[in-house]
Specification:
Two copies of one chain form a homodimer. Chain A is α+β, with helices and mostly antiparallel strands and 151 residues long. Chain A has a single domain, classed as Orthogonal Bundle (Arc Repressor Mutant, subunit A). Chain A has helices spanning 2-22, 29-40, 47-53, 59-71, 115-131, and strands at residues 45-46, 75-79, 85-89, 98-102, 108-111, 135-146. Chain A has a three-stranded antiparallel beta sheet with strand order 1-3-2. In chain A, strand 4 and strand 5 form a beta hairpin. The longest helix of chain A is centred in the first third of the chain and has 21 residues, at 2-22. Chain A is globular, with a radius of gyration of 17 Å. Chains A and B meet through helix 5 and strand 6 of A and helix 5 and strand 6 of B. The structure holds a DNA duplex (25 and 25 nucleotides).
Chain lengths: 151, 151
DNA sequence: CTCAGTGCAAAGGATTTGCATGCCG
DNA sequence: CGGCATGCAAATCCTTTGCACTGAG
């Protein structure tokens, strides 16, 4: 299994490196570390999360590097209801999914919707873009509620 | 028309007053003013928006009163991608809708999805609650993209 | 040697809070 | 009168920025 994971990560890292090059940025050790953390985590991470998971990182550098990775399109920023931004790998590096946001603790978990749901959504989205002057780039379907831990 | 609006507002204000009482809060003049602003606006308002629309309001009181109204379940806080929280009337005081969030300016507009989309979503949501330990209270379907003004 | 990346500390900015005053009940 | 609501200003806290240092090419 370790072998498989390594292979996946290698591909991923290559892609991330390309995207960073695309915006004139290097793929440094710390940026690799951040991507690795995001790969391992099954939910978006806040900066405090990251700092706890890897004590060797400076807060300001984490902020800066996540901003760089976001600009490069390798990482996506997730906004919840609490005071912390969270970060996850860009969907095209992982898979399309949605979020379960706990209104009690602000935590986020991922979930995947059925193909039918996604098809319906896609249709609705094209409808909107033809009806209004708005150009959709992305959609987010979040369920707000109480997570198993807080219940 | 003025008459009609007044009637609608009266009902609304009564409901808001009840909800405030429910959490041991009064429906003061300033809270009325805030609700009135939210009724008139076709999209969620940020605190700066509110302060511009009504120069007589103190910033801290607006924050406080919107927090109170939110607690009472009369107002809902909307998080976008920029630094400002926005506020709108609770959906059960208006109607169920979704948001078009501009990734360029952070602005928000409302849109309504078709009944079929909502039906599909509802089914997906019950699926999730049975599959996971998560208890959904609400869902949000936001389209991220570029608004007509920024395009 | 050059220049981007990093860490530390200070600054920035939205939001919250303390406290004195005013007003509704 | 009593207590919550309000306004002003100061404090908070996430996030950003300035600056000197380090390391890769």
């Amino acid at each position: 299994m370790a072998g498989t994971v390594t292979t996946m990560s290698d591909e991923l890292h290559t892609t991330v490196a390309e995207r960073l090059r695309g915006v004139g940025q290097r793929y440094t050790r710390q940026r690799r570390a951040l991507v690795a953390l995001l790969v391992e985590s099954r939910h978006p991470l806040s900066i405090p999360d990251v700092l706890v998971l890897d004590r060797g990182l400076a807060q300001s550098s984490v902020y800066r590097n996540l901003a760089v990775l976001t600009q490069a399109g390798a990482v996506h920023r997730v906004v919840t209801t609490d005071d912390f931004s969270r970060y996850e790998l860009a969907e095209d590096l992982t898979h399309h999914h949605h979020h379960l946001i706990c209104s009690a603790c602000g935590g986020v978990e991922d979930f995947t919707a059925s193909a039918q749901v996604e098809r319906t959504l896609a249709r609705a989205i094209t409808d909107v873009s033809t009806t209004t002057g708005f150009t959709p780039e992305n959609h987010r379907l979040d369920l707000i509620g109480i997570c198993a831990t807080c219940a």
